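Loading example: each entry is read as two labelled lines plus one structure line.
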Amino acid sequence: MKKSFLIQFALLILLIIFTNMGTRSSETLQEDELGTAGGMRVELTGDETVFESSPANDNPPVKGGTLVLAESAEPENLNSYTSTSAAATRILDYVYETLLDYDYATWRFDRPVVAENFEISPDGYVFKFKIRENVYWHDGQQLTADDVLFSLKAILNPFVDDAPMRSSFSKVVSAWTEGPFIFYVESSETYFRNPEILGGFHILPKHIWDPEGLLDRYSVEDLLNPTVTREEAAIKEFADAFNVHPQGRPVGDDAKPIIGSGPWLFDKWVTGNYISLARNDHYWNTEAPFIKGYSEGSAYLDKIIVKVISDATARLTALKAGEIDFIPRMRAVQYFTQTNTPDFLDKFQKVSYVVPAYHYVGWNNDKPYFSDKRVRQAMTMLIDREGYNKYVSYGLGIPTIGPFYIYSEQYNKNIEAWPYDPQRAVELIEEAGWLDHDGDGIRDKDGVPFSFIFSISSGSTSSKYLALMLKEDLRKIGIVVNIRQLEWSVYVENLRDRQFDVVSLLWIGGLEMDPYQIWHSDNIGDRGSNYVGFRDAEADSLIDNARFVMDKEKRNAMYFRLQEILHEEQPYTFMHYQRDPGAYLKQFYGVKWIPIRPGYKMYSWWRSTSMMGAGL
Amino acid sequence: MAEMAPARTYGQIVGSQFRKNKLAVFSLHVIYVLLFIFIFADFLANDKPIIMRYQGETYFPVFREYGVNWFGMNWQDVFKSQQFKILEEKYEAGDWAIYPVIPYSSTEYNLKVKLQAPTMSHLFGTDELGRDVLSQMIHGARVSLLVGFVAVAIYVFIGVILGALAGFYGGIIDIIIQRLIEIMITFPRMFLIITIVAVMETQSIINIMIILGLTGWTGVARFTRGEFLKVKNEDYVVAAKALGYKDVRTIFRHVLPNTLTPVLVTATFGVAAAILIESGLSFLGFGAPPEQATWGSLLSSARDTLPTGWWLTTFPGLAIFITVTVYNLVGEGLRDALDPRLKQ
């Protein structure tokens, strides 16, 4: 045995010696002509506000057909106010309606839906909504201003489990009705996002959620008054019932369907399997074009089935097998390398569309390593954002320099992104005093070694890759990166408690954003969303003042300045705005993509029954 | 005819029995190769030259790396950035370097060559960041073997002691230890491990080794207890007792050596099982930290790229399969060799 061991050893040594001196990898550059991989790339620059990916069809849209789409996660419940998952909102948006919604031509939040029209008082504090008189709930009852008032009361009820949602209603001081179809709401501030907040909540039917009228006795002022809410047991009683109301979790065959007023009826929820919706054939809005410039009708598809398939590979397999028709979000590697066969491209249309969500790396500004803005700038210059986007995200990202949505008027296009420049970065780090004083190979300053923890959520492969790249690169310049994988709930907990050095996250925003929540120093600590601890006096005053500037241009000028400050300070390294890759069966027409979440709405989709739809 | 063969020792007998099993002998040689990789991984796959001549001086960067990592040494100023491949551009006449067979480290990434099928420069292809798969497998072998051996060492230690106590003393001690074993085995092991790992603050292979060690001892304990029960009434044990030896001495000097061999056979199987569990944990993302290349984590990264990227599943999968198989074969060979009934 000894002899054979020696022989093996000698053989391997020989192998080493025979290896040519200084072997190098033959750098076979991966062609970047992956490009679009046979898919469409939604660009919403210029005048286009909606992007249609399906070819023009001479036939008018026809009703009928089913669409089966796959989501990765199931909502924990379908209670519009207490649910925090985006999956729930995506479904409930079809079942419930709001007073106002986005105008798909201008992307302002002023298209009347349940409201026929609305007025803002000259001082800007009071909103008057005239409710349409022909809106009916799915059970045939009429929708009135009472339902709207009830819904607002439910949101404001301090015992209802909807704290994240309620916080944006914190400026409401009063609301009342006048007759059955006039609804007033008063805000203490003339905030520019008021229409979106005060007109943007789902209206729930009062006769279903509060048949005994528990909330009737209390006004909005009462609900905002802690003394009243503490003393009146009925308020808590209502909230307790509301939080667990069967309408919020209509599971199984005998469950009563969710009653809304929207163009789709809730059909069925089989947990762990699917949620289905059916077209509302008695929908109230039959006359006017449903959404101008987007869809003439309110709904064409007979049925929408949202299947829950958590595994990405299984989702793609299901699509190929014809079990589902549409994957809204697939993995980049699937989009670019696994769906390029002529067969697939023949049968399915691939689309990559922008959603208002950006990827960033957040540096905890209160940690000794990142308290100096030069170090943060250096970190940005050390991350090869272009290479990362090109190779890890397959070019799906759109570079951004700040938090605002790149397709919005708030985005400052005049700022040039920091370059990828490791050399300059090292100079900046040394300028900031991080040198290897004690000679252990790791930079330090005031006795603190430059060794930090990069926290990543255990599900996120892209964050993992970024962390691994950074670790390898920084090791070479004497900075230690430790990667810590955390389960999502722990990750969020640490984030809120600000117990982290570096995080990598996706922030899901909106078309028009208020930077107050993330960038104002008010929101540092106490579980506020300014997790990285960014403080700047000028930024604070800009954020405070801009909120009440109703003139869009003046307001945006202030936000432009804010972006300059953020660019200089680099509290985050802004990576990219996200493009989601998806694919759908080519039998569908009227497939349109929009710049608001989730990037698509089923109102305009219809399924061609003729054979001209490819594939079948 | 009456000539006696020279007396053979127990070891020689077992050795000759073992050698009759060709498959086991071959497997043992595979284990030697694995051990070689385990020890010399840094010399087999590394982005630093083993030896290099640079500007008139000779350096040994791989050895230096050990010095830097373990003995508080520093990189020479010329190598501060540790980017030896970039240094090549500055080579003058007479400068040269001998790189390891696989001139890539397990963490070195190159996005431009990501997800490449096996080529001459990357024999086993590259992963999603353009890291060399073969290099990751070589360094992953370290993790696998280390986890296998250390975890088994821990649980053999615990199991033998508890089993010995239970078997030797019997009575209340036996009952307590038996119940303890029963409590332990009621938990599904994988589930228990995942639960413990999930509440751990940091991920490290040391944790995995300890957890595997702390959860795996029940089999060994039962086995040892059984052997003790068998042996404890033998004459030499009774004699040891009669001579008034302390229990500790009786247990560890007299009884244990006669019960240990079968335990070691099960330990061989245990190594294979531990390697498998570690791979499973890494596959699920609970195992080694992300920067640590392991066979399991390689497999898991392949899952995202399937059905493309066959090399990401095939090679690590084969490595796990081969390793687990050879340990089992060696274990089997040992068991047969030790079995007196098979002796001729």
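Residues 15-33, 612-616 of chain A have pLDDT under 50 and may be disordered.
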